[in-house]
Amino acid sequence: MNDLFDNFERIESNDPEFHEIFKNFAYDEVFKYSTLTQKESVLVTLASLIACQSPKAFKKILLSAVGKYITAEEVKELLYQSVPYVGFGRAHNFFGVVIKVFKKKEIVMPMKKRSNTDSQNRYEKGREIQDRYFGKEMIQAMNDNAPEGQKHINTFLEGYCFGDFYTRDGLNDAERELITFTFIATLGGCENQLRSHIQANLNVGNTKEKLISAITVILPYIGFPRSLNALAIVNEF
C-alpha cells in the first residue's frame, strides 16, 4: 500500500531521506505484520489521524484511498463515528477536509442519509447496541450504579453515542468497534474505556490478533509509548 504515501510530495522533494525511511516503515514493513484487509488498514489509519489531529496527513492519505480502498460513504461514517469519541472540537476540521477532497474527486454532496433512528426510538435502539456489545448485565449495572447527578451521562451514551451513531448504515459492527478502539488507543490516557472496547471488539467478532494488527498499522502515527500502552492492555485479554 505504498501508494497511500504518494501525495506527500513536499516531504519527498525537500527531505527525501526522511521520506524514504518513513515510507519504508509505515507503508511496507508494518503491513508485513498485519492481518488487516486493505480497507481495514485505511480505516484505522484515517481514524488515528483524526484522533492525532493531523488534518494534512489525513487529507493526503484520503486523496489516495477514497474510491480505491474505501468508499465515500465509509469515509462519511468514519467521520461521524469519530465525534462521540474524539469530540466535535477535534473532529470539526476533518469535516472541512473531507468536503474539499470530495469536491476534488467530484463526489456528489450532500450524500444519502444513513440514519436508522428518530427522536422516539434512539434511546431504545442505542440500548440494544450497548447490550449486544457489552452485555445486558454490565450495562444495567452501570446505569444502576451511576451517582446521583451523573445519570444523564449514561443517557447521553445510550441515545447520542450509540443511538445516533452506531445504528447507522455504512459500516458494520466490527468495523465501527475497530475504529473506536483506534480512536481511544490513539488518544491515550483512556485505559478503562480501552478495556471496555477491547471486550466489545471481541464480542462483535474482532479477534485479539486484529487489534494487535490495528496497533501495528497506527504505530508510525502515534509513536511507541501509546502503542506499547495499548498493546499491554490488549494483552490483559
From TrEMBL:
<dbReference type="InterPro" id="IPR003779">
    <property type="entry name" value="CMD-like"/>
</dbReference>
<feature type="domain" description="Carboxymuconolactone decarboxylase-like">
    <location>
        <begin position="156"/>
        <end position="236"/>
    </location>
</feature>
<dbReference type="Pfam" id="PF02627">
    <property type="entry name" value="CMD"/>
</dbReference>
<dbReference type="InterPro" id="IPR052512">
    <property type="entry name" value="4CMD/NDH-1_regulator"/>
</dbReference>
<feature type="domain" description="Carboxymuconolactone decarboxylase-like">
    <location>
        <begin position="16"/>
        <end position="98"/>
    </location>
</feature>
<protein>
    <submittedName>
        <fullName>Carboxymuconolactone decarboxylase family protein</fullName>
    </submittedName>
</protein>
<dbReference type="InterPro" id="IPR029032">
    <property type="entry name" value="AhpD-like"/>
</dbReference>
<dbReference type="GO" id="GO:0051920">
    <property type="term" value="F:peroxiredoxin activity"/>
</dbReference>
